[in-house]
Amino acid sequence: MFLYLFLLLTTVPFLELYILLQVHHAVSTAWGSGYGLLATLGTVIVTGVIGAALARQQGLSVLQKLQKNMNERALPGDAIADGVLILIGAALLLTPGFLTDLFGFSLLAPFTRIGYRKLLMKWAKQKMSRGEMNVTMSGFGTPPSAQNSTDARYEPNLNEEQDHIDQS
Q: CA-CA distance, 92 to 114, in Å (whole number)?
């Protein structure tokens, strides 16, 4: 894992810097040296602003989906996965560079995010089945015994012997 993280944190910035310099050189050659820096920096700033606006819009959409799932007492798995992907996409768009921007925009676009969500859910299920990841939800929904009563409380008895004694 350390090797993958090391390669990611060294290779990606190197590639981003190389691409930025190539774009700067191409624009400077075509339009002049003053425009190369302006176009390169302007592109980085514009993609950051557009990305922030798109992340905000997509994030609010996912929050609405999450609230709807919770109100319907449905598991919010897809909404949570979308939220994680949007957060990663927004962080990538705030990182200067064309590769990270491209990947960030693909995480924010709903039609491409579907594929990433499937991969993320598959990865999480594999981790859970191997016992490497645990998911705990508390306070989700109303237990069946308390659905008809507004003041009923659900308190599970974890002591099986006590349950046996109470039934006798």
A: 18
- Cβ count near 101 (within 10 Å): 23
Buried b / exposed e along 2-28 (16+ C-beta atoms within 10 A): eeeeeeeeeebeeebeeebeebbeebb
Per-residue pLDDT of the chain (168 residues; tens, 9 = 90+): 788 888 888 998 899 999 988 988 888 888 877 788 888 888 888 988 898 899 999 989 999 988 888 888 877 788 889 999 999 999 998 888 899 999 999 999 989 999 999 999 999 889 888 888 887 766 655 555 545 545 444 444 455 444 444 454
